[in-house]
Design a protein that fits this description.
5-stranded mixed sheet; globular; 16 strands; D-Maltodextrin-Binding Protein, domain 2; single chain
Length: 292
């Protein structure tokens, strides 16, 4: 009996490093060679291919891949009929979603999309842009841009539709956002036939579970402390961040150990308060995965 293998597409390009990092935290060690699009992974049940995010949803839809990670934007741009399994945010810059925005030069008279009637727009997402124009009942020429789209806005076209996370690149190129067409995050998607296969579905769901658990752990830490039982109720009432902690008795009479998981950003304010409330032996530790 031949072994079962899941054909898994990961995005090559701007999302590649972040995706491989998150997969590593999920427990899948992936090593990429600069000369190959077939990376090594320490799971014999995975057959990984590095493919441009723009193309992954099409290959998943047509069954060349069983599943893959790509942006919501490219699923919409390609009108791909795929099974969406999970949504994740692990962009190359921040934990914010990316946005496809309509932009014009800062000094442009264009104030709304209606002002682009009869004008020319450059973008990589031609289908999304045409759909947006139809929705707004605007007739304009949309041309595909192979790159350096921000530069074209000042000399070659009247407006552009470009992707951004923070807007810093647009501001650096003296561009003004007129409207947002789409907000996008990475998605794990599956081929419909693969999703109907019991083994493949379970494997895909396992990957999704571990990815989500690893990402949940990124913003949280574990906290342990010891405190006198007499001070415990007051501690819990005054510090709502310690809701539903695990409490266990210590060998020393009258003392208990408290353990909980909290958001990392509150720890710097919380630890001094714990100390002031009588806590001792306070330990903060990182987490690998958090499953709810």
């Amino acid at each position: 009996m031949s072994k079962q293998v899941l054909k898994f597409g990961l995005p090559k390009g701007s999302l590649q490093d972040a995706t491989i990092e998150k997969m590593g935290k999920a427990g899948f060690n992936i090593q990429v060679s600069s000369r190959s699009y077939i990376p090594y992974v320490d799971d014999v049940e995975l057959d990984i291919r590095l493919i441009r995010a723009q193309e992954i949803s099409r290959y998943v839809e047509h069954g060349y891949l069983d599943c893959g990670i790509t942006g919501h934007d490219w699923i919409k741009e390609n009108s791909s009929d795929v099974q969406e399994v999970g949504e994740f945010i692990f962009s190359k810059i921040s934990r914010q979603p990316t946005r496809w925005v309509l932009c014009v030069p800062e000094q442009s008279p264009v104030k709304t999309v209606k002002d682009l009637e009869g004008k020319r727009i450059a973008t990589e997402v031609v289908n999304l842009t045409k759909s947006y124009l139809r929705k707004n009942k605007v007739k304009a020429e949309v041309e595909f841009s192979w790159g350096a789209t921000e530069v074209k806005a000042h000399e070659l076209v009247d407006a552009i539709v470009e992707v951004t996370e923070t807007g810093s690149s647009l501001r650096a190129n003296k561009l003004r956002i007129v409207d947002t067409l789409l907000t996008s995050t990475p998605r794990l998607v599956a081929n419909h036939d693969a999703w109907k296969n019991k083994w493949k579905k379970q494997k895909i769901e396992t990957i999704s579970l571990l990815l989500r658990a690893a990402m949940e752990a990124e913003t949280k830490v574990g906290l342990k402390l010891n405190i006198a039982e007499a001070n415990l109720l007051k501690l819990l009432q005054s510090l709502p961040a310690l809701r539903n902690p695990t409490i266990s008795k210590l060998s020393q009479d009258g003392w208990v150990a408290v353990e909980t998981i909290i958001d990392e950003h509150v720890v710097r304010e919380l630890i001094p308060q714990l100390k002031a409330a009588g806590a001792e032996g306070i330990i903060e530790y990182p987490l690998n995965k958090v499953v709810y």
